[in-house]
Amino acid sequence: MTDQEKAPAKRAGWKRDPAKVQQDILQAATREFADNGFNGGRIERIVQLTATSKRMIYYYFGDKEGLWRAVLEDAYTSVRAQEAELDLADLPPLEALRKLFVFTFDHHRRNADFIRLVMIENIRGGHVLASSTKIRDLNRPVVAMLEDICRRGAADGSLRPGLCPLQLHWELSALSFFNMSNRATFSGIFGAGLHDEAGQVRLRDSLADQLIRAVRA
Amino acid sequence: MTDQEKAPAKRAGWKRDPAKVQQDILQAATREFADNGFNGGRIERIVQLTATSKRMIYYYFGDKEGLWRAVLEDAYTSVRAQEAELDLADLPPLEALRKLFVFTFDHHRRNADFIRLVMIENIRGGHVLASSTKIRDLNRPVVAMLEDICRRGAADGSLRPGLCPLQLHWELSALSFFNMSNRATFSGIFGAGLHDEAGQVRLRDSLADQLIRAVRA
DNA sequence: CTTGTTTTGTACCAGACGGTTAAAATACGT
DNA sequence: ACGTATTTTAACCGTCTGGTACAAAACAAG
């Protein structure tokens, strides 16, 4: 029984590549955790998604919790990196804000796995994220963008005064996040009208309009 | 050891009360599931929170999944029931809308367990909710309120035309829900400024203001 | 009291699951 | 070439956990 697979599986000239192995594990773990949660995520299933063995997971990540931490940090890193390409500096404040919101909304839509990981981390109380200064730092730039927009908006009079950049970020996040996180229950109850492709575009643009109305001077 | 509790626990004239037992289980299960998720929720722990035995859970609810379904339906029922007391019919549309939002926001804050259950159901794909016509029906009244507000607002010219009641409900939900669901990660990253008591009131009222600005004619 | 049905207590299990042991294979400095 | 540290394989394990078998109480009906 065991003989069948023993010989042919491993080639002679196979090069070792620890970094690659870790990336492989991380990717598989992301899939599994995003699909099934932390407690529902199965190490064995992660192994099957991987070219390596169970032992490797524990070798590189210690335990399930350590793997979760790595997955979460990796997710934040890659998602926030995508935001860096956004350049709003030379747009008028209101246009910059609209563009930022539209981007954020779409960005959340593109990163369903990330949303699910954050949902799961929230259910777990956020204690992993709380002890990760790395993740905290990754999030500063987004708010910095809004601080800039608010500053310029106050200066040229296009935005009403007293706006809080952090709260603005909270609002963009809330709308964009909820759109993904509660899709299942919301469209389960009220139908998929807001969540099919056309509905999403309509919703997004309508929200953008409302946002502008809410903040302009 | 076992003798200590045996005799005094059950009186001779003790009446059986199946309904009470089920309620007891449901309450304990709600605690456990809300705290630890579905997969993280432990039947044995639920038993310990209960005056009954593990056998009873399976007797009344079949299996863990059945228990989850019962918990979710129970939660929706009681939470939506609380909303019924709200009377907006004789308020001007804009005031009614503000009051509805403030209520919704506070209501979500008061029902942290419910929020967590909905989060969990969403992570699980919402398949339980999808097959529950009961829950679907429970949610109609909220949207009906908004339909009424929009109708009256269009009639007296206080609301701008073209507003979608369902989208409005989506927005109120998004802000109120996100406020609870992502508290851990958001305040973990950006500090608790928006989530302490004073911050919450400020946030709520500020959002209400923005909402009014966004929808008035 | 007898009989049938509902409700409950006790003890138990099979499988799943996270994690480990021990050693072999490979890379690498000297 | 050789010794040492790193990386990988394969088999294994203790415990936890959802779920059950069995039958005794409690109750209702006749």
Describe the structure concisely.
Two copies of one chain form a homodimer. Chain A has 217 residues and is mostly helical. In chain A, 76% of the residues lie in helices and 0% in strands.
Topology of this protein?
Two copies of one chain form a homodimer.
Chain A: H1 3-9, H2 18-40, H3 43-48, H4 54-61, H5 64-83, H6 93-110, H7 112-123, H8 127-130, H9 133-138, H10 140-156, H11 165-181, H12 183-190, H13 197-215
Chain A binds a DNA duplex (30 and 30 nucleotides) through helix 4.
Structure description:
- The structure is a homodimer of 217-residue chains.
- The first copy, chain A, has 13 helices and no strands.
- Chain A is mainly alpha-helical and 217 residues long.
- The first copy, chain A, has 2 domains: 45 residues, Orthogonal Bundle (Arc Repressor Mutant, subunit A), CATH 1.10.10; 140 residues, Tetracycline Repressor, domain 2 (Orthogonal Bundle).
- The radius of gyration of chain A is 22 Å and the shape is globular.
- The N terminus of chain A is likely disordered.
- Chains A and B meet through helix 2, helix 7, helix 11, helix 12 and helix 13 of A and helix 2, helix 7, helix 11, helix 12 and helix 13 of B.
- Chain A binds a DNA duplex (30 and 30 nucleotides) through helix 4.
